[in-house]
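Hey, can you fold this one?
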Amino acid sequence: MRKGIVIGLGAILFGPTAALIGVVLLMSPAALASCTTSGALLVGEVPESLTVTTRSGSTVTLDHQQLTHAATIIRVGGEIEGVGRNGIVIALMAALTESTLRMLANPAHADSFDYPNDGSGSDHDSLGLFQMRPTAGWGTVYELMDPAYQARAFFGGPDGPNYPSPRGLLDTPSWQVMDPGAAAQAVEVSAYPDRYQNYQPVAEAIVSALTRPAPSVPGSAVPLGNVAETSRIVFPLPTGTWVRTGGFGPRSDPITHAADFHAGVDFAAPRGTPILALADGVVSVAEYSESSGGVIGIEHTIDGQRIASVYLHMWASGIYVTVGESVTAGQHIGDVGTSGHSTGNHLHLELRPGGTEADSVDPEPWLSSHSPEDLLAGSESTTTSCLA
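Sure. Predicted structure:
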C-alpha cells in the first residue's frame, strides 16, 4: 500500500555563493563533471502524497500524479550522462515553479487538450511541466504534451531534442557551480527569476523520497572485504567552494575551549555544497549521531593498502549513500552541513590507514603526496576561528 510521506525541511543551499566565496574560479571539464557525478538513482514506489515545507515556510502537498511526473523527470535525468542528482534537483525546482509538477494544456493550442493533461494553463502558449512554448522552438504540441520529452528538452545536451537552441541545462556554461535557482532560470528565462529557489527544499525532498542509490554492480553491493585498487584521487569539495579553517592536531575546542585533539582537517563551505568521494571504494558507515552529526565512511584500496576516508557533519537529509554501496571517485555522496559538535557549515575530513576503525592521520600530507584533482582550488582562511 502506498503511504503518504511528510517531510519538513529548512532552507537548503548547495553550490557556491558570491557572498561567501567572493569569486568563482574557472573549472576544468573534469572538475565540472565531478560536481554532478552521483551514481544512478533508482526510482521506487511512488507514494500517494508528499508534504514538504518550502524555503519561505509554506507547506506544499503533492499528490500521486504530481509525484509520478517527478519520477519521470528523475528517470530521464538519471539516463543522461552529466546530469547527476544536482541536475535532477534543478529540473524539479523548475517544474515545481512553472506548473507545480502538472502537465498543463493551453487554450492557445486547442489540440493540446487531446492529450493526457492535468488541467489548463494560460501563460502565452506555454505547455506541460516546464511550460515550454512551441513558438519558442521547444517542440510541437504533440512532443510537449509528453512528460518524458519535456524532461529531455530541459536537460538538453548534444543528444537533447533541441540542441543547440533553445538551450537546456547541459548547454548552460558552468551550470554545475551556479546557484541552482539561477541554473533553472538560465533554462526557463522567466520574467520572475527569483522564484525557483523557494522550491529547492521541495525538490530535494522529492528526490530523497522517491529514490535510493543504485549499487555499482546491478543487484548487489561490493563486500567490504573486497575493495578494488584505485588510483584516481579527487578533492572532496568542488573547486572554488571551500576555505580551510582547521588543521589536524592539538587545539582548544571551539565550543568547550578545553584542550582537545582534532583528528581531521576542516573546510568551510556553504550549506548544501556537494561532498565528493575521495576515491573509488565501498561505504562502511552512513549514519547520523548527536556528537558527529552525519557521518560517511568509505573504504579504499590505494597503493596496495587499505585506507578509509571519513566525512562528518552532514545533516541526516544530506547523506546520499548506504552501507555496502560501491562509489566512484568524485561521486556526490552528501552535502555540507553543521550537525553534531560543530560551529558552522563545513566538512570535517579524516583519513584512517588500515580502515574505518583505525586511527586517523593528518590528511593534508597524504593529499599533497597523492595530488588529488583540484587540491589547490581553495584558499587559506584569514580568520582565527576554528570549526569543530
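Residues 243-380 form a domain with the Glucose Permease (Domain IIA) fold (CATH 2.70.70.10). Let me know if you want another pass with a different chain boundary.
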